[in-house]
């Protein structure tokens, strides 16, 4: 930007004049009315990007390409080994389907600013529903299909949607997940009731429609009048994505229209080195931020072809699936979670399946979502003979905080590090006294305000919670809740979370939320949930419970009941499969459970026995249980 090339020059150019950098990037977006200012520090909680600018995100992602004569270009390739189907949707098809669904939603009272919950498996209609909301200026909130009814209910209660877009079922290997009972239960539990539910009837499992509320999604689209794009202000919300917070109540991460469109479109060239017509595949789920940003919005904003994959890295049908998709669709850049590569590596350690496919079009593999072990990087580099880039991400930012930048020329990677800060982010490592620590020393990773475009301006309806959760720990900085260090050459190493979040197979989960469920069991006196190391999933949750006096059930019986409760209240995605009964939990003399110390033991990290500990013997007892649970 601003004449700079290469990572160092571009980062320096951004640092010299951040506003000029982002003003230039904003030139990539078709504005209905250009922004009055690039950034206004006086607006919102810490300032707002592109105030006074008007645009429509769907127009930029879809209509604009059709108007430019690219209607015949594939926009979405849906590849579903779960059903054996592959469908290519051109930009012109996509425009028609999105405009119709927008019309169907508008007929049901969805207008600018109204919320719509999308609870969908990985089918094209999930992306179409997101874009239809964007078209109307409505605010979508996608809920991952692996969450249970109670979690869905919390999100319905908080977002207060006018409508829900869903499907009759999701498909998991070996089982059909019926969505209708989950939707009905969630609406039953929520004090807020949406007035319309649009359901995609999948042939694998049709469902009954509730009269007066439900409609068949495809019928509704066929009957609808296509709706034009509604112009919104850059600072108007595009979506809410709920993510695990430190308490059971999820945080509604808010994304605006203008900053999001600018940063995401720009990132496709700068971070991934792809442009219009290239095939980009983020093997994630639309329920997660990676799915929002890199299955749907960014590739379409850049005019790419995006692959929407309904399957798993292994078992659908085998560990060669990812490579088959790359060959068949000519994928240029693949983005997935390290856990997916570990799963493939476990089943196909020598790359026998990989070698069956022609991967000459694949230029790079990007990994994110959890800390990536160096082995996974070196294994994939060794077999692919392509750059493998680890980049550090959060739902809150919407695009990468650190990485390596294909569009700027890659610098050498260092396995175990998430790369260097993206232009736009001033990343620092702070100590408890809010001072920057020397290079190479571990501390709290923080980002100097303002955050770049696309990062959350606040939480939905919760400015105070936003300040408290992210801005209060280090005044003037956004606290990432990750600990790590920056080395002498500027590489950032993300080591662990500083809160109760664990990362299970790339899925972000709160141990606090699981503790709330365990504590509700009538036989449990107290409990702690910690993430223990797992060679496949990175971390898995382990429940430690102390039983009430006089309980005679066995550990196995209690364990089964607790596992069922977590599955029922949070969902199968929590992967809560193990609970151990312990006599006592380690505590301070004032009675606080030493969760941070338990986490360190579970991570296999060095720890000091806290001076405030009540009885150090208990730490040894529980430590043995944790070590025994590591895989
Ligand atoms: N709807 C319903 N249930 C779901 C679901 C969905 N969308 N996604 C996952 N689940 C269920 C699974 O069926 C499984 O249930 P089970 O306990 O009955 O077996 C449970 O949730 C845990 O799922 P998962 O964590 O996916 O584990 P797995 O053992 O099925 O598969 C991997 C392991 C590594 C193959 C898988 O975790 C994976 O593909 N990970 C990649 C994650 C990813 O892309 N993350 C996005 C961040 S970039
Ligand atoms: P999510 O919001 O689900 O994307 O999860 C964000 C969290 O995942 C971060 O705060 C980190 O703890 C972790 N994470 C994501 N990407 C990486 C990475 N490349 N390296 C280390 N940790 C990561």
From TrEMBL:
Residues 7-61 form the Acetyl-coenzyme A synthetase N-terminal domain. Residues 514-592 form the AMP-binding enzyme C-terminal domain. InterPro entries: ACAS_N, AMP-bd_C, AMP-bd_C_sf, AMP-binding_CS, AMP-dep_synth/lig_dom, ANL_N_sf. SUPFAM superfamilies: Acetyl-CoA synthetase-like (SSF56801). Pfam families: ACAS_N, AMP-binding, AMP-binding_C. GO terms for molecular function: propionate-CoA ligase activity. Residues 65-449 form the AMP-dependent synthetase/ligase domain. It comes from the Bacteria. Belongs to the ATP-dependent AMP-binding enzyme family. This is Propionyl-CoA synthetase. It comes from Neoroseomonas lacus.
